[in-house]
Amino acid sequence: MKIVICGAGEVGTYVAEVLDRRGESVTVVDQRPERLRSLEESLDVRTLEGNCGRADVLAEAGCKTAGLVVLATDNDEVNLLAAVVAKRMGAQQVVARVHDFGYLEQDHLDYCEALGIDQLICPEYSTAIAVAQTLRNPAATAVESFARGQVQMEQFEVDAAASAVGKKLSDLPLPKGVRLAAVQRQGRSFIPDGATEILAGDSVFLVSGADSLDQARRLFRAGDARRRRVVVMGGNRMAAWVCRLLEGSGFSIRLFERDRVRAERLAVELETVTVLNADPIDAAVFNEERIGDADDFVAMVDDDEDNIIGGVLARSRGVSRVVALVQRADYLDVLYDIGVDRAFSPKLVAARQIEELLDRSPMRTLANLARGQLDLFRVTASAGGRAVGVRLRTVKLTPHWSLIAVQRGDETIVPGAEDVVEPGDVVLVLGPHGRGEEIAEILGAS
Q: Which in 33, 241, 327, 410 has the greatest CB count within 10 A?
């Protein structure tokens, strides 16, 4: 496939490296000759010096016959303009990277539809989602990445005093749009049906829309469990998004921001977060604020070295879990060796999103859960599937399969018994490990 990448910054360069390793035919366009020379020396890619917003440059790059054009300059508006031009020229698929998540929100305008762009990606926001789900529950990773935060999944143990204990699943007053997707009991994982009785000590996988998760969780968790104490170092956009994504999820959050003006603004914007104008790396601040007692420390300033120092300091002073953000993807493996539990790189997130666009397979395994016993599948439904075009209550899916999310265009829902999966829908399915062929047949993806 012929691929054109506009912008040889961190994201564009990393994507070029990934696609070059895949053996794709890649052309990189940028106005900075020094960056292009660096690419030519290390990769087998074609380079072109020029303004990505100009039609003649895009034509010379090969956009008229490209299978994919990726707009990844540092300027959102240039990316949007170039995406429109490339699509009008005849590019098969066009993806624009934006820094401002406002372009992805559709409160006033669907930019993709209005401009004729196939997809907008915001690695910073996707990274914030990944960090937030890590703090909530590692099992949520693939679900939230799939649904852009519209659908969430948590795994937790059922309290002995919870109201759900001893009741059949069919008797539980689960809110609309909530599904008990799986149960792990005495080392065995299974998909529950209406007759499944909930027992104390069960580990349950609960899936719901973002607005219903807290209400559903209370059925399985008795009383007010202690809120997890989270310290966030840095007040950039990603840090603010993480805080917003964690609202109402049982966290007590303190955000430390060195810049006073930014700290004051965040204190107004983040009503449920305690914002402090201080540097948590400073030993006096660390001790005075008892940061070592936190359950989670999230290092998200714009400097990789500060994030590394902050993470190592937090770990050495007793913080239970440390998450760090780094721009340089080559730092990721090193961080795990020095005590950081999870590390994220926005440019790596962007590259993975673009790789997913190149995957044309109707079914893909996204994650392996419950100690290898369950697989999470992403399936594109077609008219040949017996669960397609009919109400889900008419299809026997349990005890093997749980349809936990359906994506249709920009909307993602947790389907109910009366919902219908239509051809072209992308479905998230949880089921037993190694039995993907069965769900492929059920949804017509084989």
A: 241
336 forms beta bridges with none
Is the CA virtual torsion 314, 316, 319, 322 positive or negative? positive
What strands lie across the sheet with 374-380, from one edge to the other? 363-369, 374-380, 426-432, 402-408, 411-413
Give all domains of the chain, ordered by start, each with its CATH number: 2-121 (3.40.50.720), 225-351 (3.40.50.720), 361-443 (3.30.70.1450)
Would strands 411-413 and 402-408 be described as parallel, antiparallel, or unpaired?
Answer: antiparallel
Q: Which residues of 151-183 are buried (b: 16+ CB within 10 A; e: fewer)?
A: bbbbbbebbeebebbeeebeebebeebbbbbbb
Q: Rounded to whole angstroms, what are the CA distances from 193 to 125, 183, 186, 404?
A: 36, 10, 18, 14
Contact (CB, 8 A) for 145 and 129: yes
**CA–CA dist 433, 412 (Å, integer):** 24
List, in order, residues 6 or more apart from 213 with CB less than 8 Å away: 152, 154, 178, 206, 249
| Of the candidates 210, 214, 95, the residue with the CA atom closest to the CA atom of residue 148 | 210
Query: Residue 361 — φ and ψ, nearest 5°?
Result: -65, 140
Q: Consecutive sets of 10 residues in the chain, 446 residues long: mean pLDDT of each? A: 93 88 93 94 95 96 96 95 96 92 79 90 87 72 61 84 94 90 91 94 86 80 74 94 83 95 96 95 93 95 92 91 86 78 85 75 82 87 92 88 88 90 92 89 87
Burial of residue 195, with CB atoms counted within 10 A of its CB: 0-12 exposed, 13-18 middle, 19 or more buried: exposed
Identify any residues that bridge with 155 across adjacent strands, giving them in sequence order.
Answer: 205
Cβ atoms of 150 and 142 within 8 Å: the answer is no
The number of C-alpha atoms within 13 Å of 358 and in the hemisphere containing its C-beta is 21
Please enumerate in sequence order all residues whose Cβ is within 8 A of that of 221, keeping only pairs 6 or more positions apart, or say none.
Answer: 156, 158, 159, 162
Evaluate whether 110 touches 128 at the Cβ level (below 8 Å): no
Asked if residue 241 lies in contact with residue 102, where contact means CB atoms within 8 angstroms, the answer is no
3-state secondary structure (DSSP) of residue 382:
coil
In three-state secondary structure terms, 138 is helix
How far apart, in whole angstroms, are the C-alpha atoms of residue 375 and residue 434?
Answer: 8
Find out whether 376 and 369 touch, Cβ atoms under 8 Å: yes
Nearest alpha carbon to residue 152 among 143, 160, 165, 163: 143
Interatomic CA distance for residues 105 and 116, integer angstroms: 16
pLDDT at 148: 65
Extract the tokens encoding 30: 């940028």
Structure tokens at 222: 């008795």
